[in-house]
Design a protein that fits this description.
Rossmann fold; single chain; 2 domains; five-stranded parallel sheet; 8 helices; alpha/beta; Arc Repressor Mutant, subunit A
């Protein structure tokens, strides 16, 4: 795997370079977006670690430009812990979003988890449909009966995980790993809270759901969009 780190802090760039190299990744570093975008082209990088706050072209615009020519994984870094910032970054094609400060090993773990997600394939429909519910995986947008549904990052990732295996029951632990990463430790019943919020936003009756079905004592699975 080849990675390009675009980070204007030499200290943080060095830390990231070492952490990724220790994981067997070939790493190239740029301290501004113009050089970084050029490196992604030159190296045909598989992964881009991209700071949001860069001199000149910022990370949001850099990500938009990257998506015109590459399907590399993009992880955005920011010092701002704002849901709006996250959604903007994801809307222009980022795959993940990490808020500073963070542990370099945590970032590597999230990258490895991200690699398990399939990339875009030519000719493959990237919209998942469940009755009136549509999930556009490329745009990371959700609509219900044609109207946009505003979800948090965690809610979207949870819905995407369920939609990716529509016939399979997924355990709470498996879902938690997908939305929090493999090294996150906590109560896996946190998933129930996010499912409750998702159902509310989707107008899903917990007693007779259309979209997110409970598998008693185990976890959840995706429904077909019709009430039983």
């Amino acid at each position: 795997m080849v990675a390009v780190v675009i980070e204007d802090s030499p200290e943080l760039a060095s830390v990231l370079q070492r952490a990724l190299a220790d994981d067997g990744i070939e790493v190239h570093v740029a301290h501004d977006a113009e050089r970084g975008i050029g490196l992604v082209r030159e190296t045909a990088a598989d992964l881009v670690v991209l700071d949001v706050t860069l001199p000149g072209i910022d990370g949001i615009e850099a990500c938009r430009r990257l998506r015109t020519f590459t399907d590399a994984y993009v992880v955005m870094l920011t010092g701002r812990d704002s849901e709006v910032d996250r959604l903007i970054g994801l809307s222009v094609g980022a795959d993940d979003y990490v808020t500073k400060p963070f542990y370099a090993r945590e970032l590597v773990a999230r990258i490895r988890a991200m690699q398990r997600r399939p990339r875009t394939l030519a000719g493959v429909d990237r919209v998942r449909r469940f009755g009136a519910l549509e999930i556009d995986l490329d745009r990371r947008q959700v609509t219900l009966a044609g109207r946009a549904v505003e979800l948090t990052l965690t809610e979207y990732e949870l819905l995407e995980a369920l939609a990716g295996s529509p016939r399979a029951a997924l355990s709470r632990a498996a879902l938690l790993e997908q939305v929090r990463g493999p090294n996150w430790f906590g109560d896996d019943h946190l998933i129930d809270v996010h499912v409750s919020n998702l159902r509310r936003k989707l107008g899903d009756d917990p007693a007779n759901p259309r979209f997110i079905m409970t598998v008693r004592g185990f976890g959840f699975r995706m429904g077909g969009g019709e009430r039983s």
